[in-house]
Amino acid sequence: MNRDIDFDENCDPNNPRKIKYDDILAASRRIVGSIIRTPCVKANMSEKLGMEIYLKQECLQITGNFKERGIRNAIMLLSEEQKKYGVISASRGNHGCAMSYHCTQLGIPCIVVIPTNGALNKIYKCEKYGAKVIVHGANVLEARVHAMMIAKEKKMLYINGFDHPHVIEGQGTCGIEIIEQVPAVDAILVPTGGGSLVAGIAVVAKHLKPDTEIYGITTDKTCAMVEALRKNERVKIDIESTIADGLAVNLVGVNTFYTLKGVLDKMIVVKEDWVARAIMHLAEDERYVVEGAGAVSIAAIMAGLFPNLKGKKVVCVLSGGNISTTVLSRALERGMSAEGRLVKFKVTVADRPGGMSDLCALLSGIGVTMRDCVPERAWVKGDVFSVDLRVICETRGWDHTKELMEQVKKHFKDYYFQDMSERPDKSAGTRRGPCLAPNPVCMQK
């Protein structure tokens, strides 16, 4: 890789910049009126999860994510000459959407380079908001190199979506709002990919209310920040498919990594199955449609990772809501399956008029809904007058599923229930990152 092409003076490993509270405060005054002051309301799930949870709804920004704060601050600080040439960035979608919208609002030329695995709905949004979109590279790192080549050719400014100092300062304005909205907050749980949001919020919280605990939350497939903090150096990781594409950063930021030292209490890693369940519960219990990255904080609480926060005031940042309908439907079904509400089984019934209706009558009698049923005759052994039915049913939960299993076993001789040997909600849901608190509190049960 050509260092001249790849070098970004605003994100220089040899000259990292520590973000200061005063700069974040100035950013909050600069962007006021241009960014939505999002609500931070008590969650309906609070009692069930055993703590007073408040949801900071960054998913309600115009482009559906918190990135608007950072990019608005960054482009408002551009020189008049740079505004004429425009800006460019590499993004998996959210940063690109925010940059597209605000550059269009201010009449600034904008190019977004998105890797080939970027979400289609986010590519569409970038184009809709007015940016020129280029799809290039297998990941954000490759897209970034391509974007920086274009930046030098066209004299555009490359703005790193999670590491430019002005971007981090803008993200930190979310922290100012949180402290104003929940003054007695005990802990803030922040989705963490490249680290701009958690770095900005941590700087603010430790300045205004030093006893506030700050936790960065990521998934087991997007744990670049965990590895960096564990090894005390920025480490490149491979990321394939993930439900939390907003956190899919291969290499964390220079400035975010440097800023987080001393202000972040702990990194938490949650399994992606819990994220699917969190997306489902946020939709059902809170009426919010949230993307995977935005749901990781609630997922970590549901997974039982915070026994130390029981009974305390906790703010969970819902960082974004740009989830595609395809991923949303998959997440809802995965969540239902994990909680015993979506059941798959096979049963053998008589292959005669009324044979299948017996099963339907049984399901109807106990209030179970049949979602799908596929008959298979060719693979039934020993009896040409029987048919295997592969059935997917919807129940009210584990107790209802247990009742279904008992009734099927009672009325049919041959049956098989898939993955019903143990409840998935009893399995371990997470692994933990390095503790960074000056006075660490053990979080093990």
Terminal Cα span: 46 Å
Report the average pLDDT across residues: 91
Number of domains: 3
Q: What is the CATH architecture descriptor of the largest domain?
A: 3-Layer(aba) Sandwich
Count of alpha/pi helices: 17
For the secondary structure, the number of strands is: 15
Keywords for this structure?
single chain; 445 residues; alpha/beta; Rossmann fold; Alpha-Beta Plaits; 7-stranded mixed beta sheet; elongated; disordered C terminus; TrpB-like_PALP; pyridoxal phosphate; Ser/Thr_Dehydratase; L-serine deaminase; lyase
Structure description:
The strands form three sheets. Strands 1-2-10-7-8-9-15 form a seven-stranded mixed sheet, sandwiched between helices. A four-stranded parallel sheet has the order 5-4-3-6, with helices on both faces. A four-stranded antiparallel sheet has the order 12-13-11-14. The two termini are 46 Å apart. It is elongated. The model is unreliable at 437-445 (pLDDT under 50). It has 445 residues and is α/β, with parallel strands linked by helices. It is built from 17 helices and 15 strands. Strand 3 (87-90), helix 6 (94-106) and strand 4 (110-114) form a beta-alpha-beta unit. It is 41% helix and 18% strand. It folds into three domains: 21-65 and 169-336, Rossmann fold (3-Layer(aba) Sandwich), CATH 3.40.50.1100; 66-158, Rossmann fold (3-Layer(aba) Sandwich); 343-422, ACT domain (Alpha-Beta Plaits), CATH 3.30.70.260.
